[in-house]
Design brief:
mainly alpha; 79% helix
Length: 275
């Protein structure tokens, strides 16, 4: 085969591989959005359904049936795994792998908080605190990985963002948790957890300030933090009408924004180089 013919064959093969890759990407994207629709139906549809079928009516703590709440988290774990599996490049797969790990621990925490895991703990929320805490460690590792790939990332921006959000976490703990009279055994475990959640929010905010495509992730982390403050108020001061709905209708979208925000930025920001 002549040199020119060899070049033509090589170029043709490259075009074919690119086309095949494009078709695969379309299918992965369709699968991700299909899972998103399932998540939406389970969470928002569950809320609407619960309003009509709840025996307590509008005065219930939560209208979303437990299986639909847990199912919405399972859907987000599936979405995170699909996003990670659909990336051939090591850098993207590692970043999304940390996100999937964080979401998987989030699901575990949901199961503990719903008292669906019987492991002999004096309070199932302790299992939730540990599980969610490990999830935030995974999210922070994903953020550290992303920071290495952003040439314009500033350590000063990260430090300022962390200080601001850690202060918010401490103030929130002091104002809500330390002043409560219920579930006292959870008071001190809640402090390091609050700091981990605030650190996650700070790291994602720093990424968003550097590259605005990370904004959905930062918003998701902020919603997560808000939902946990609502849950903390309920745990330490007592429940109120719609408390469970407020928690899940901020927590669920928060986790969704983290997972889908990560899937969106993973391929758009980093060049195809070895990780």
């Amino acid at each position: 085969m002549s040199g020119e013919a060899s070049k033509v064959v090589t170029a043709s093969a490259a075009v074919q591989r690119k086309a095949e890759s494009g078709h695969v990407a379309v299918w992965w994207s369709a699968l991700l959005w299909g899972i998103w629709l399932l998540w939406f139906v389970l969470l928002v549809g569950g809320f609407v359904l619960g309003i009509y079928v709840s025996d307590e009516g509008p005065t219930a703590r939560s209208h979303i049936p437990t299986p639909m709440r847990m199912g919405s988290s399972v859907a987000l774990v599936a979405a995170a795994l699909v996003a990670a599996a659909g990336r051939r490049h090591q850098v993207e797969a590692r970043f999304l792998g940390w996100i999937a790990t964080g979401m998987a621990f989030g699901l575990l925490g949901d199961l503990f908080n719903a008292d669906l895991l019987a492991v002999g703990l004096p309070n199932p929320v302790l299992g939730g605190i540990v599980s969610f805490g490990l999830g935030h460690v995974a999210y922070i590792l994903a953020c550290l990985d992303a920071q290495k790939r952003l040439d314009t990332f500033s350590g000063r921006t990260r430090n300022v963002s962390l200080v601001v959000w850690l202060l918010i976490g401490v103030v929130g703990w002091a104002a809500i948790v330390s002043t409560g009279s219920e579930n006292q055994m959870l008071r001190w475990p809640a402090l390091p957890y609050s700091l981990l959640l605030a650190a996650t929010t700070g790291m994602m905010t720093a990424l968003a300030l550097t590259e605005r495509r990370f904004a959905p992730m930062a918003l998701g982390a902020a919603l997560f933090l808000f939902s946990d403050m609502v849950l903390a108020f309920e745990l330490f001061h007592g429940s109120f009408v719609g408390a469970g709905d407020l928690v899940w209708l901020t927590y669920g979208p928060g986790q969704m924004l983290i997972v889908y925000g990560a899937a969106h930025v993973s391929g758009a920001l980093w060049p195809r180089r070895n990780g």
